[in-house]
Amino acid sequence: MSEFDTVLVVDFGAQYAQLIARRVRECHVYSEIVPSTMPVPEMLAKNPKAIILSGGPSSVYAEGAPAVPVGLFATGVPTFGICYGFQAMAQALGGIVDKTGAAEFGGTSLEVLGDGVLFAGLPAVQSVWMSHGDSVVGAPEGFAVTASTEATPVAAIENPARGLYGVQFHPEVLHSDHGQAVLQRFLDAAGCRPSWTMLNIVEEAVEAVRRQVGDGRAICALSGGVDSAVAAAIVQKAIGDRLTCVFVDHGLLRKGEAEQVERDFVAATGVKLRVVDASERFLKALAGVVDPEEKRKIIGREFIRVFEDEQRAIVADGPADFLVQGTLYPDVVESGGGTGTANIKSHHNVGGLPDDLRFQLVEPLRALFKDEVRRAGEQLGLPPAMVWRQPFPGPGLGIRIIGEVTAERLDVLREADAIAREELSRAGLDRDIWQCPVVLLADVRSVGVQGDGRTYGHPVVLRPVTSEDAMTADWARVPYDVLSRISTRITNEVREINRVVVDVTSKPPGTIEWE
Ligand SMILES: Nc1ncnc2c1ncn2[C@@H]1O[C@H](COP(=O)(O)OP(=O)(O)OP(=O)(O)O)[C@@H](O)[C@H]1O
Ligand SMILES: O=c1[nH]c(=O)c2[nH+]cn([C@@H]3O[C@H](COP(=O)(O)O)[C@@H](O)[C@H]3O)c2[nH]1
Ligand SMILES: NC(=O)CC[C@H](N)C(=O)O
Ligand SMILES: [Mg+2]
């Protein structure tokens, strides 16, 4: 018997399918996503202890709407439907789903009815987060209705004898006050043991890499950030010194970054590291380019070209056909890589990869969120400074210069960025702030007065944000005196900049980076 139980999340095209999986993992039960088109025997091969049906954009009664996989309810595996998944379950079992005109979006008050399993011991009235236009108007036979809202009389149903449960609201979002508790009750009812930890995922990942790479060789795209450091540590455990890490100085790094990464990474891990100065080729490729997606694609392509050169350079050692990247789930979903999700921006390591990629990718963290990766990093014994380092995007300062990227502009931004980082650290805010991009509006000028003379310089934008996982973010309330010190120092010390502004936009609607 496996040491831990598995819960499958059947994805009907939800924005937040991974969020469901992650909430299950927070209950110490392993969880992974499968597409709703996966046949039931394939699901059973994964030996699921329970199944969760996700939300999705379709209406169950529409033509071509994704349906519950045939035969699922006959398997006897306890199943929990959420939103679309709830509607699909109700319909499949003979209930009635319709567009009632009673749409609910956002916070909604839910009234618990009777003594069901999912709401046991929870408040009789609670706030839940809704996002639906269709409703279950008739529960299937054998099911009790266990909650309702003003607009939705059938807001939750259950048939504990069959292990089937469904809710109209989204327990996975933090805005549902007792969402995590509802999920926990389902997992308990399904008999899932809380025995899964990050250690399991590390061990599983090491095993999977061993299977994938066999006795081959790999190079790891190493950035000094937490994601690639954890990925490298996992792959090193799997294949030892058949791994070589490659850190690319693309000229878009921050002040002192190349030296710091080279020094600290090798000291902390003992992994073989090659540092490549490729700044000239990146700058050349970016000359004249202003479109963000174009920049991202160029950077993604140049990265790969550098790795190919490196592959040839270390070939004396034997060929390295595998490329390890610290890709996380948000990189994938924003690049449009989820089932039916939109392309927001092409992350260089996913949507920015060239079509003629010859490497086989090794991405042990592709299903995880940053805070989960940090926990894995701690389990692997990486030093806190590495585990807690703020994220810095692979395309670097290239996507923080709005306009063409040039060597001079990079120098200006590097100085401003170094000052902001120094002052935020000095104020002890590193752990409170997720990250603080500094953005140079290179094509914008404004009039200033300095030393009794007129200036006509550029603004920089400070973009301090707080976040749990980079999927959503809020602007950080940095104390005024800290902002004031940053502003004064930047305008005093960086001649080209005569104005500092603060970005007070959450995500959504803004993204964290400006491009
Ligand atoms: N300068 C670089 N040299 C080599 N590989 C890089 C570089 N920058 C990014 N990468 C690769 O791209 C991946 C994605 O970058 P990303 O910034 O999301 O992750 P990270 O740098 O590892 O962690 P963090 O998000 O904390 O910065 C990295 O994990 C790494 O594999
Ligand atoms: O490796 C990366 N390659 C990229 O192309 C990329 N674009 C954004 N980011 C980082 O991802 C998080 C979410 O950023 P956005 O809100 O701007 O999409 C934030 O932490 C960003 O810094 C990137 N990381
Ligand atoms: N978020 C969802 O799963 C929505 C389900 C369905 N499309 C509705 O509007 O009711
Ligand atoms: Mg990074």
UniProtKB/TrEMBL annotation:
Classification lineage: Bacteria, Bacillati, Actinomycetota, Actinomycetes, Streptosporangiales
Q: Which PROSITE patterns match?
A: GATASE_TYPE_1, GMPS_ATP_PPASE
Entries under HAMAP family matching the protein:
GMP_synthase
Q: Which reaction is recorded as catalysed by this protein?
A: XMP + L-glutamine + ATP + H2O = GMP + L-glutamate + AMP + diphosphate + 2 H(+)
Its pathway, per UniProt, is: Purine metabolism; GMP biosynthesis; GMP from XMP (L-Gln route): step 1/1
GO function term, MF aspect, one:
ATP binding
> What's this protein's name?
GMP synthase [glutamine-hydrolyzing]
Main EC class the enzyme belongs to: ligase
